[in-house]
TrEMBL record:
InterPro entries: Cu-R_B_prcur. It comes from the Bacteria. Residues 1-20 form the signal peptide. Residues 34-54, 83-114 are annotated as: Disordered. This is Copper resistance protein B. Pfam families: CopB. Keywords: Signal.
Length: 336
């Protein structure tokens, strides 16, 4: 009797297991896009509707208290979890209203979010246009003492300007003293106008003093930053009586550190006709090659030491000036 009873119990256990496996399919239905075995279906409804969708969401949703419902149980609406509409497996709800787009409503915010409020100008500056401010600058490029074979002396090169980044008015002066008297000096008043990103034109007047009678010139030229960071300056001069002159300068800054800078500089001067009263010959007058090593204590102040090799040619060398001269210099450079 025991063996038939054990066989009957085993048969009942198998039937219960089969019924338990079939219950989710009968009560829950298949998930959208899935077959009855839990694998993706070959095709899903195109319009997004599924007869089992509401039952599946009711069964899989979790109430606010965190307890899982029994399969097939009905969950009250206030405890249902509505899936996000942008989820790929979420059904489309047609009661959400139209999508965003089209014409804005009459009370929509301004495109610039200003709500019609405009910022007043600040002390005459147009904030929308961004006016180019004017400012003053002072460059003391050379203020130095000189020691040479003919004796000691002083040299200077100073220029100050006022204007904006496109137009500026410059007043510049350079010269030298030796033996307690003024050897030569000139003063220039130039209007500078930007014509390219790194190039400016210059137009103005120049006046020479010291070392003979004064001379006046009309000045014109260009200055700017050439490739490989070479500063170039070329200026031509025209004076009364058919006098002409030209000056070419080039310099470069070699940075050993952010404060220690070596600056080579080359300058050439030429005159169209001789001027014996000022000790100048025609043609190439002189060439100066300088080498100055400066240390920027601050960006505005930099003391330096260096040397200048000077070579005079033709009539300029014949008018009481040595053809070759080596100068030791020490000074300070100031930029304000």
């Amino acid at each position: 009797m025991r063996r038939p009873a054990l066989a009957a119990l085993a048969w009942l256990a198998c039937m219960a297991s089969v019924q338990a496996q079939e219950m989710p399919d009968r009560h829950m239905g298949a998930m959208p896009g899935m077959d009855h075995h839990g694998t993706p279906a070959a095709s899903a409804p195109v319009d997004g509707h599924d007869p089992h969708a509401s039952a599946a969401h009711d069964a899989m949703a979790m109430p606010a208290d965190g307890h899982h419902p029994m399969p097939g149980a009905t969950i009250p609406a206030q405890h249902r979890h509505v899936p996000a509409t942008d989820h790929p497996s979420a059904p489309m709800h047609h009661d959400m209203g139209p999508m965003q787009g089209g014409s804005p409503p009459p009370h929509a915010r301004d495109p610039d979010y200003s709500d019609g409020v405009r910022t007043p100008p600040m002390h005459g500056i147009d904030m929308a246009m961004g006016d180019d401010p004017r400012f003053a600058t002072l460059h003391v490029d050379r203020l130095e003492t000189v020691h040479a074979s003919r004796g000691g002396g002083q040299q200077w090169e100073v220029q100050g300007g006022y204007g904006d980044s496109r137009d500026k008015l410059w007043l510049r002066s350079e010269g030298e003293r030796s033996g307690g008297r003024l050897e030569a000096a000139d003063i220039e008043l130039l209007w500078q106008h930007a014509v390219a990103a790194f190039w400016d034109t210059r137009l103005g007047v120049r006046s020479d003093t010291g070392g003979g009678p004064g001379r006046q010139w009309v000045a014109f030229g260009v200055q700017g930053l050439a490739p490989y960071w070479f500063e170039l300056e070329a200026t031509g001069y025209v004076g009364p009586g058919g006098r002409t002159a030209a000056r070419l300068r080039a310099d470069y800054e070699l940075l050993f550190t952010q404060r220690l800078v070596l600056q080579p500089e080359l300058e050439l001067n030429a005159y169209g006709k001789a001027d014996p009263a000022r000790g100048l010959g025609s043609g190439l007058s002189d060439v100066a090659l300088g080498l100055r090593l400066r240390y920027e204590v601050r960006r505005e102040v930099a003391p330096y030491v260096g040397g200048v090799w000077m070579r005079r040619f033709g009539g300029t060398a014949e008018h009481g000036r040595s053809g070759f001269e080596w100068q030791w210099v020490a000074g300070v450079r100031i930029r304000l």
